[in-house]
Amino acid sequence: MSDASTAAEFAPPRADCVADSAGGLTFQVVDWARPGPAAGSDAGPDAALVLVRRGADPGPEGEVRLPLVPTEGGRLQAALPSTVPLLEGRWDVHMVFGEAETQRLAPGLNDLRSLVDRKPGPSTSPLAVRIPYPTKHGNLSLRSWRRTPHAEAGELRVQGGGLAVRGRLYRVEHPAEWLAGAVAEARLRPEPSRVWTGQLERNGANAGHGADGAEFSFTLPLAELADGWKGGEEAWDLWLRPADRDAAPARLARILDDVPDKKEIFTYPAQVIAAAHGAAKAGPYYTVNNDLAVRVESA
To answer: Which of 7, 45, 205, 288 pairs with 274 at a CA distance of 20 to 30 A?
Structure first.
């Protein structure tokens, strides 16, 4: 037996993924074979696609099972609608036949065009985002976010000593009213009692821009974040806080596209600042969870 045929025999099954604009995914598994005594090309009624949340304890919040059904061409298909809740995190994708051992799936072809510049429609239900990606070990996994409300970060500009932020608010009933009394906040991690607060920039009488009043903008003076800097590295998380203190704030993040990990891809310049404890630099970045933050550190 050649090395090529041996590799093919032991290659894991692959799953193609198609995303829809509502946040759902469809998986199509190819190159599969049922293991064990019933080995063959008949999947049987107990075939399932299994999502396992990385680092989670066993239980309903750590595992989701989706039935796999045969389709044309000998493929097995599973649907993950946006209405099926997935907690935030990384989910590893497996398949299983009955009581047999689960198998990791390898990534196939992805059609994620509907995720590019995605603009969800009006709703107050949690915003579901799922982005499939290949791991460094060649396996298929998903990044998942579930947020309400959500402030999607758009254009960022570091200029004139400030960080100018534009974005759009989702998953509130009346975005223009929500933004009218809202403020922008930068919260020092892990000291949330240290907070910078600034007004949203107004468009006429309202803070919300756009036809539906859901767009927002503000400018964060970077030097103000460095006022209490004492050396080392500080991280400030960016939020929108509504006037109604009983309402949930909105974390600024960039999740409405097809890029699962922004931190190393979206990079921005830093502003050099003359701080009390020496020269510092401050600039925006995306965290490992694609949340927007500002880093202050030695220049």
So the answer is: 288
